[in-house]
Model the fold of this input.
Amino acid sequence: MEIKIPLHYILLPLLFLSSINGNAQHNGNVNHGLASSGAVALKSTNQTNLVTTTWSGGVWDNGAPDFTMNAVISSTFISGGVNLDANSLTINNNASVVISSGDTVSLTGSLIVEPGSLVVFNNNANLIQDGTTNTNSGAIIIKRNSSLLKRLDYTLWSSPVAGTQTLLAFSPETSNISPNNIRFYKYNTNTNLYDVTDPSTTTFANATGYLIRIPNNHPATTPTIWTGQFAGVPNNGDYTYTMADYGVGKRFNLVGNPYPSPLDATSFVTANSDNITGTLYFWRKTNNALNAAYCTWSTLGFVTNEDPQAVDPNGVIQIGQGFFVEATGNGTALNFDNTMRIFNHDNQFFRTAANNVEKNRIWLNVTNASGAFSQTLIGYVANATQGVDASVDGKAMNDGSVSLTSLIGSTPYAIQGRALPFAADDVVPLYFKATAAGDYTIALDHADGLFSGNQAIYLKDNTTGIIHDLHTGGYTFSSAAGNFDSRFQLLYQLPLAVAAPEFNANQVVLYTTSANELVVNSGAVKLAAVSVFDVQGRLLLEKKGINATQTIINTDSTNQLLLVQLTSEDGVKVTKKVIK
Done:
């Protein structure tokens, strides 16, 4: 069965955090440090007899700092587009410091903020540090932008600082009317539900995610960014989150990035591979009961729910981001450390450097005319198998009205990796769910690797017997409501002794029965629709959703020349004349 995580009291969707740049002006020369996204390895220094350089009156008195120096800022300072590297950094003398969006402070030692001084890290500014323990002191402010949101939208937040900041202090305008209108939540692993929490007494815990609705004074109709401000001592060093585990199906934990810098998702799941499945789940932004609430990431790729704010993670978890992991049952320790931290300033929420791992992937969508949507990913990648592969295969977490996934055994997976080398005779069983009867379309969203070339991709409908070439377009079918684990398969070659049937006028047979019914037979090609026109081109009758090679048309016409247009399941049209 699919994994569902409903809400307690509400069924409302969430968002990813944004990395939209803020603005700040340059007010001094700061030594340029690391220059691009990547794993952080700060330079170790001899801690004795280090030179100190002080920023005062707009200049460094002993030259711009680097990792071999202690830096002191004692007057107004704005980074303004340049990074700062140092062994330690002290802010004193009631100085006001702004680290501009896109800039990074990299320290091998501590950040010390003395009383009376103010330090602000704007949205998308990063603080990177070395060490296993947190030796920082003094509070700073870290600003984080949400995605474009409306008043009733939600976000999963996680704090990058330690201290006494409550959820209510973080978002004071969010509804907090007891008992039925409190919109602050913690996740309950045992019930797979969100429980209301008192925001006035609940403080942010390290590496923990919280569900918080956008403030009530936020615009209701125009999606707008909301900026949250975390206040406290910046986190650094090693953290261990103790996951809840209540047995199979009750192992989902809402956690979060504990650092004032992004996390490399691959490093995070690799370090915790014994205790978590390696799939990360992020909730959508806006209210839409038709579609799944969750987007899914694994090392193989990303599956969206088609929300406009659901940007492909590409392997980076931003500052302040909450997300779900699933425990394996092997242990409850979820570890975070500085080796997972990276610096990242892109406007896109998630971004990481490209790697050279061979990936050959197919993204399939199922949709209907009402806007329901579900996506699944099947990929052929090194070290994957046809079984369950940790950090590669991602279970489906779907509460929408429609779902398309692949199966490993009897379990639906939103993301499935399969073994290399690729074999064209591989067959992938698919799972389809619909909560309402109707017409649906399965289509190829995009592909890469060998599938971006001439490799065939077929969808087999075991109910109708149709084998459809997805490179030619989507496959539309009718379905009753229900769960279907054997109707569809993904193929890469036609079965032996089966050739794709041609569709042309020579194969079409039209005749009239004694009851004056027009019989239309298309030979070996199944029909999607039949349209009947008079010689002036006026549509007299149209029949859709045939899904058969023969159908009967009832018309009132007698002794009249008619034009009969047949449309195959692949969209090929053939027109023949008949007198009826």
